[in-house]
Design brief:
It is a single chain. The longest helix has 6 residues. Strands 1-2 form a two-stranded antiparallel sheet. It has 101 residues and is mainly β. The protein contains one helix and four strands, in the order βββαβ.
Length: 101
């Protein structure tokens, strides 16, 4: 099986103050890009996301003006990859102490 060389990535384009804007435009909250898959370093793995969650807390992670100390995770800023939880399949593992799969 060959490993992917590119992957779709959801990035925060415009942090909302009120409502999330899902239309494809310059004002959209998110931008879908295609980016190269990074090289796997020792101790890392490459996964393929099968399911991603969409939780109410994510709204606060991207909202302008929310104090970081109100969040249980770091805020997601404009230009960042949107954080989420997922169910994924492991495609490759690199462990110099063992072997690469």
């Amino acid at each position: 099986m060959s490993l992917p060389t590119h992957t779709p990535v959801w990035r925060v384009k415009n942090s909302p103050q009120c409502s999330v804007f899902l239309e494809v435009s310059d004002d959209a909250t998110f931008a879908l890009t295609e980016e190269p898959v990074p090289y796997i370093e020792n101790g890392e793995m490459l996964v393929e996301n099968l399911y991603i969650s969409n939780d109410p807390a994510q709204r606060l992670w991207i909202q302008k003006g929310v104090l970081p100390e109100r969040l249980y995770v770091a805020p997601v800023r404009e230009g960042d990859v949107m954080a989420t939880l997922s169910i994924a399949r492991v495609l490759a593992i690199k462990d110099n102490d063992c072997h690469a799969i």
